[in-house]
Structures are given as structure tokens and as C-alpha cells.
Amino acid sequence: MRLLLQLALIFIVLLISEIESYPQPLFEVTREAFCREVRDREPQQPFSDFAEVRKGDGLFLWMEIKAGERALTMLEAKGELPIYHAWALEVRVLDLINIGITKERWLEQADAIRGEVNRRGFFTWRTQSYKKNLKEGRWYVSVLDANKKPVKKLGSGTEVFRPEIVVQFIK
Questions:
Q1: How far, in Å, CA of 149 to CA of 133, rounded?
Q2: pLDDT digits over 7-61, tens only?
Q3: Quick one: how many helices (H) and strands (E) in the chain?
Q4: How many angstroms separate the Cα of 142 from the Cα of each of 87, 107, 117, 166?
Q5: Per-residue pLDDT tens for 70-84?
Q6: Domain regions of the chain by residue span
Q7: What is the CATH number of domain 24-170?
């Protein structure tokens, strides 16, 4: 009986160390939308699979992220949390845009972010990028963390989050 208890304890320790060897992501995407505009930090006039726009118009990719202790630690250490949108047409990346929490925003929002993490165990952040000079075709946006590693959408398991939309021009 004692041996069985010791084996069970060893198994639990090994399981915990295995779980802890997979680091918590800096953040995950909870909501996203390609849209014509963003108002009051929410997407307006969202598109589904196709964006019919006039030549010369731009396009937003709006998203909300959920971040935990690891992101808060980075913010406190570095004063910023870079998040990138890598806009690609077909297979070629054309723009890399930092849409993360800047030093200025961290200074303004630090107490609120800390309070949200203390209350809920995480904080949410809404942000967006705007792509001008669109061309017709299939656009992808890779969402990258501070280390320029792909992130995942909340609940998607290990699947990399990479929203896409087809842009078509209207007259």
C-alpha cells in the first residue's frame, strides 16, 4: 500500500512538471473582425469572408485579446507588450504592424490592468491595425506575440490563429 502511494505521488509530480514545461502563452485572441471602421473600441460594419471595398479604401483587423500573469510580468519588466499583425497577400508579407500595448498606454493603464488581473486572473485588451493600399485577392493576417511567434485563438487548441479575407473592388 505504501509503495502504491509513493508511485502515485511520483506520478503526480511528473504530471505537474510536464504541465509546467509548456509555458503559458503571452495572450490569446478572444474575438476578431475585419471591418470598415472601429468606434468606441468595437468593430463597425464587419465583413465575413469577402470585403467589397472601393479602390483606395482601407480595411481594419480588430481584435480582443485575453492575457494573464505572463503578459503582466512582461509589461511590468519592459513597460510594453508588442503584438504584431503581419498582413500578407496570397503568400507574401507586405506589412508588419505593432498593435501592442505601448509604453505610453502602459503608463496610463497600469493600475487598471493590474486590478483586472487581481480580480479575474487575466486582462483583456482591444486593438486593431489598418491596412491601406489594398490589392484584390486573398489576404491573411498572422497575429504574432512579442517574440514574433504565432498565437492561437482561445479554444482552438494548438491551431495558429491566422484570419483571412478576400478583397474585391467595387465601383
A1: 26
A2: 444 444 443 434 344 466 789 999 999 999 999 999 999 999 999 999 999 999 9
A3: 3, 9
A4: 7, 28, 26, 15
A5: 999 999 999 999 999
A6: 24-170
A7: 2.60.40
